[in-house]
Amino acid sequence: MSRSVYITRLSSFLPNEPVANDEMEGRLGMINNKPSKARSIVLRSNGIKSRHYALDHNGKPTHTNAQLVTEAIHKLLDGDFSAYDIQLLGCGTTSPDQLLPSHASMVHGGLGLHPMEILSTTGSCCTGIQAMSYCYLSILAGNHENAVCTGSEKMSSWMLANKFQDEADRLKELEANPIIAFEKEFLRWMLSDGAGACLLQAEPNKTGISLKIEWIEQRSYANELPVCMYAGATKDESGNLTAWNDMEPQTWTEQSVFSLKQDTRFLGENIVKYGGKYLLDVSKKRNFNVADVTYFLPHLSSEFFGPKIAEELKNIGIEIPQSKWFYNLTRVGNIGSASGFVMLDELFHSGKLKAGDKILMMIPESARFNYAYILLTVV
Question: Is residue 149 within 8 Å of residue 198, measured between CB atoms?
């Protein structure tokens, strides 16, 4: 008997009140007690107007990553589907609270539920979709009747000024110019905190809409492209990484080894091009006509990439009109692996969807260029 899988519930949790652009540095702190020269440049390009941090006004943490996820999951639940009905839990993140136990283990423990199968996916923006894919395939295979999958980030603690101060002090001693490299400071003004969750079931909702998962396609280009975004390592001029556990502990702070770093030049040269190339392959494999899409949900790290993506899609003959685009980057910020969930949650509860609508999601990951596409049908 053939089975189908449906997204029947979606939720998001964005911690604390929105943080406006002019409040960011007050929350994250100033490196060397001086305003950032990069901040205005990055914000002008990315177009983000507000975001959320799991920090209070003094920069103290208000939630762990696992707590963000449990808050999102609780919003999925009610008298008809309780936490004790969950059969499989899949959690993806770039920013787990610790190396061990796994992120999903901590979420499971925080929920305080019965024993169940869990999955933690690691990486960057695609990790939430990787968790969804596993849950989808497990239900499709008949192993489970339902699953909860999540994407979440708590990047704010990585971006606090005190995480960079030792390097700034060292630079000052060396050259009296304690400016942190742009590749490290760039992402301080790009990233946000939050969590999204969805419930997958083998049957659609009896009342209200559901989203049938038609397919989930993923592809890595790490065999062709080197590292672009990384943390917990340093990169030499040849592009080779040295891992934190092969360094002296003193180096960790002197070089801000655990900061998230991005090669913006390499990002710009490849992220859009390879995303278009892969979508063309997917459309041929699935015999899929992009013209049938009602809503296109692209995960954008920056508004800068919106026109670039539109131009690339037009050039390869699969143009998607701007009227079909739906995303919320400017209001919630770039939440990495949670962004796709938070976008879809907003659309799901917007009242705009009707039976037969088709939703195409695009999730690019720049760490070493991984991509995910998802096609959903409203039923």
Answer: yes
Query: Residue 329 phi/psi, 5° resolution?
Result: -50, -45
What angle in degrees, to the nearest 10, is found between the helix axes of 305-315 and 264-285? 40
| H, E, C per residue of 74-139 | HCCCCCCCCHHHCCEEEEEECCCCCCCCCHHHHHHHHHCCCCCEEEEEECCCCHHHHHHHHHHHHH
Helices (H), the chain: 24-28, 39-46, 65-74, 103-111, 127-140, 165-175, 182-185, 249-254, 264-285, 305-315, 329-332, 339-348
Between CA 90 and CA 119 the distance in angstroms is: 5
Q: For residue 168, which amino acid is it?
A: A
- 326: tokens are 């739906």
Rounded distance between C-alpha atoms, residue 312 and residue 137, angstroms: 31
CA distance 270 to 66: 32
Cα distances (Å, whole numbers) of residue 175 to 171, 234, 309:
6, 21, 41
pLDDT per position as a tens digit, 11-37: 999 999 999 999 999 999 998 888 988
Domains annotated for the chain, with CATH where assigned, are 6-208 (3.40.47.10), 213-326+355-378 (3.40.47.10)
Cα torsion angle, 99, 102, 108, 112, sign: negative
Distance between CA atoms of residues 343 and 247, nearest Å: 39
Cα gap 287→267, rounded to integer Å: 30
3-state secondary structure of 208: coil
pTM: 0.95
First to last CA, the chain: 20
Q: For the segment 98-147, what is each residue's pLDDT rounded down to a tens digit?
A: 999 999 999 999 999 899 999 999 999 999 999 999 999 999 999 999 99
Please name which of 347, 371, 377 lies closest in space to residue 12, comparing C-alpha atoms: 347
User: Measured between alpha carbons, how far is 83 from 76 in angstroms, rounded to an integer?
Assistant: 9
What residue has token string 């090669």?
A: 263
